[in-house]
């Protein structure tokens, strides 16, 4: 679809944003109840965190290729994770990857036994800790996430968000992903990366996650039209109800009171990197998103919602949670009156 600005908004500031947003976007693309054992683990890991958490300053969020190369040469605590959604991407990784990297399978590092069989749900802290330890990650590691998707960004913001949810602020994203690495003339390798198992203890941050019950409460008490901003990263067509993704079981539409802001608006379509902070701020303002008010991010499956959280983080708002189940959960569980389409 094409997201555009009408002429009646062609004031100096809004016209500039119209240029940024007038581009073709690809459409993209779930929380269930947590067992009591997970809740107990969450409490225990918060106690453990005082010992395991690093006292260093948070890492720079976006890294250039040159910055990554410098870190790989000088910092033994760097753990480079190339990411993708499944084993088919892992097979591509096995064929050619950045030397020293390991593969973060977003589909594998998720809670698969949820009641609605939703994909990519946030795992519990024990599963996440075990998974990243196998990749050589420890609490004192500087994690750098590298996107393998040809968009430059897609799954990387989700991995970045997951590390933050589990208390790890030493996490960065390679701006432009693998494509930028190759464009700079850097080589790949087929050599298997052997890492020593890490020592990672998660500190769950519930303030960065929202559940179905959280969103339902906001809808029922009217908060979405008063104070809290629910920003939806899906395409305009899926949000308004006239675009259906082939093969998707859920219908189109949106949570009443939510705001549509497609994730692709945050990326430069030519460089496949995040736009400048100035542009990000203009885009959010144009869509009526106020960084001084509470924001919750949502999308189809909890993946591209992380773009909303990332963009806000880059602008200094570090507390934007993601509705983990997102639309795939909402469409199945919500009452009919809480599923809205454009009239």
TrEMBL record:
<feature type="domain" description="Rhodanese">
    <location>
        <begin position="91"/>
        <end position="190"/>
    </location>
</feature>
<dbReference type="InterPro" id="IPR001763">
    <property type="entry name" value="Rhodanese-like_dom"/>
</dbReference>
<keyword id="KW-0808">Transferase</keyword>
<dbReference type="InterPro" id="IPR001307">
    <property type="entry name" value="Thiosulphate_STrfase_CS"/>
</dbReference>
<dbReference type="Pfam" id="PF00581">
    <property type="entry name" value="Rhodanese"/>
</dbReference>
<keyword id="KW-0677">Repeat</keyword>
<dbReference type="InterPro" id="IPR036873">
    <property type="entry name" value="Rhodanese-like_dom_sf"/>
</dbReference>
<feature type="domain" description="Rhodanese">
    <location>
        <begin position="224"/>
        <end position="332"/>
    </location>
</feature>
<dbReference type="InterPro" id="IPR045078">
    <property type="entry name" value="TST/MPST-like"/>
</dbReference>
<protein>
    <recommendedName>
        <fullName>Sulfurtransferase</fullName>
    </recommendedName>
</protein>
């Amino acid at each position: 679809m094409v997201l555009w600005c009408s002429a009646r908004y062609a004031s100096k500031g809004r016209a500039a944003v119209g240029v940024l947003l007038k581009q073709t976007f690809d459409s993209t693309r779930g929380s269930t109840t947590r067992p009591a054992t997970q809740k107990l683990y969450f409490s225990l890991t918060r106690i453990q965190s005082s010992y395991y958490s690093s006292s260093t300053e948070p890492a720079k969020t976006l890294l250039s290729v040159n910055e990554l190369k410098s870190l790989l040469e000088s910092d033994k605590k760097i753990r480079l994770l190339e990411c993708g959604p499944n084993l088919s991407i892992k097979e591509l990784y096995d064929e050619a990857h950045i030397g020293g990297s390991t593969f973060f399978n977003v589909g594998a590092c998720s809670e698969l036994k949820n009641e609605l069989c939703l994909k990519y749900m946030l795992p519990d802290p024990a599963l996440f800790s075990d998974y990243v330890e196998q990749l050589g990650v420890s609490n004192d590691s500087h994690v750098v996430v590298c996107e393998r998707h040809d968009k430059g960004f897609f799954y990387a913001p989700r991995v970045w968000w997951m590390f933050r949810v589990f208390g790890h602020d030493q996490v960065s994203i390679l701006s432009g992903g693998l494509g930028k690495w190759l464009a700079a003339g850097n080589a790949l390798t087929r050599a298997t990366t052997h890492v020593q198992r890490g020592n990672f203890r998660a500190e769950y941050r519930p303030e960065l996650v929202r559940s179905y019950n959280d969103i339902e409460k906001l809808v029922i008490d009217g908060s979405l039209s008063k104070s809290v901003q629910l920003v939806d990263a899906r395409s305009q067509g899926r949000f308004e109800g006239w675009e259906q993704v082939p093969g998707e079981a859920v219908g189109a539409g949106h949570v009443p009171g939510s705001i549509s802001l497609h994730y692709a608006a945050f990326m430069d379509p030519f460089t496949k990197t995040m736009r400048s902070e100035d542009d990000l701020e203009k885009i959010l303002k144009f869509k009526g998103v106020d960084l001084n008010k509470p924001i919750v991010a949502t999308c189809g499956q909890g993946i591209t919602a992380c773009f909303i959280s990332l963009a806000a983080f880059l602008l200094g708002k570090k507390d934007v949670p993601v509705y983990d189940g997102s639309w795939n959960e909402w469409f199945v569980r919500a009452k009919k009156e809480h599923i809205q389409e454009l009239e």
